Amino acid sequence: MSDQKTTSDTRERILDVAERLFMDNGYEATSMRAITSAAEVNLAAVNYHFGSKEALLCEVFRRRLTWLNDQRLQALDKLEAQAAGAPIKPSQILEAFFGTLLRMGEDPSLGGMTFLRLLGRTLTEPAEFIRTFFAGEYAQVIDRYKRALFRALPDVPKAEIVWRLHFMLGAMSYAIAGTDVLQVVTGCEVGDLAGEASCDDPDTVLARRLAERLMPFLLGGLRAPLPQFHEEANKQQEPSSKTV
Amino acid sequence: MSDQKTTSDTRERILDVAERLFMDNGYEATSMRAITSAAEVNLAAVNYHFGSKEALLCEVFRRRLTWLNDQRLQALDKLEAQAAGAPIKPSQILEAFFGTLLRMGEDPSLGGMTFLRLLGRTLTEPAEFIRTFFAGEYAQVIDRYKRALFRALPDVPKAEIVWRLHFMLGAMSYAIAGTDVLQVVTGCEVGDLAGEASCDDPDTVLARRLAERLMPFLLGGLRAPLPQFHEEANKQQEPSSKTV
DNA sequence: CTAACATCAAAACGAACGTTTGAACTACAT
DNA sequence: ATGTAGTTCAAACGTTCGTTTTGATGTTAG
Question: What's the CA–C1' distance between A51 and D8, in Å?
């Protein structure tokens, strides 16, 4: 009555297949028939369980994003509790926000790199229902982290922080999308990785390497000198730690 | 005279309309009928002039990208000539690559922000024909700039530079896409801008502000401290330190 | 004038799309 | 066994897609 376990099998299989196909082909280019036949379920199953193709895409994200943003909020709670009123280091804030996401790429049970790539590619889709869905899913966590960054960087104009948060999200989004539109850029990347740690699957290794490289880049961008009109703000970014 | 009058404005009108509609709705969600009726041309005109919808998209990009990447190569040529063998500053390289692009956003005759947004959104599209098209268009210029960065940063491992070039492209791509998936992030952005220079159209102002903010961020990310491969304090699951 | 190109309206093409329908099947409480 | 609610199924629905065709009209250059 309350929770049908007969439901779970078909539902989950659809969600898993949809996640992969949306990632491979994009939302518009993925047909219901491709999804249902790959999931080995009836064509009508998606509309029965989710209502529509749009609702399916939202559910694909919801089952992972709710958990993710919950983790992010908990991580920030923990940081603020530890700080006990003292300012939190920007590197810790970035780690809580981006590290929590990137660690999903190492765990296939959380969607792994498939979900990360899908997320990165979908964040730039212009469809209205996607934009409003993401806006709702992210509203709380973005607001909390924005305020945390304001407090961590009191000498930086708030508008500047917002811009840089935008840029950081972009760098991450594009990096996890990994569309490799310019294969020239990545080129040596994969071969470079394959040489080492071959115990884990390539996606897990990639996720770890990505985090190692991306976090310092983001922090460097966040603490870059401000554009001309505010020169004296440079001193607020003392090398207070070697965490990077 | 020349034949540019024979190939009258039908071609250009299709390209202009397609550029805007592809930007607004994405490639898959934009129909030929929407394009031709908005351009007030016959439905068959696209297939007559370009051959197919795919070829139309490629032509939309080609008419701007060949010029852009030409400018980029010339800018790098000029830098290298001025340096006369001496190392070029990374900031100059970034200015030549990203500044040349961002300046297109201020010039409506070069596509303006419409083209920039379209470019940012299309760079993450998974469709195969798009990926191979961009790979061909960008191969030369990426290779030149990659080598320039290698020379400008001789102490940084080449693989690291490639990663950071990737991140910089991502930050720029997402920033110019401006999909605002998380409106919370931008929020004050537009209102902030509207206060000042209201003499130009909003898109031109936005492009200028974007460049002012993005370039320092990219440079800060590029020059961030390198990751330390054994700094794992909170997570210890990689005992091997054989990383190069 | 002629020939080649460009544009048009209209219609049609087959294919693929998201969605709906109504019957058949399953599980389980009574 | 029977009723009921939830699930699956094959088949069809109506629409829209990219593309092609036909034939007529306008434009331009040799």
Answer: 16
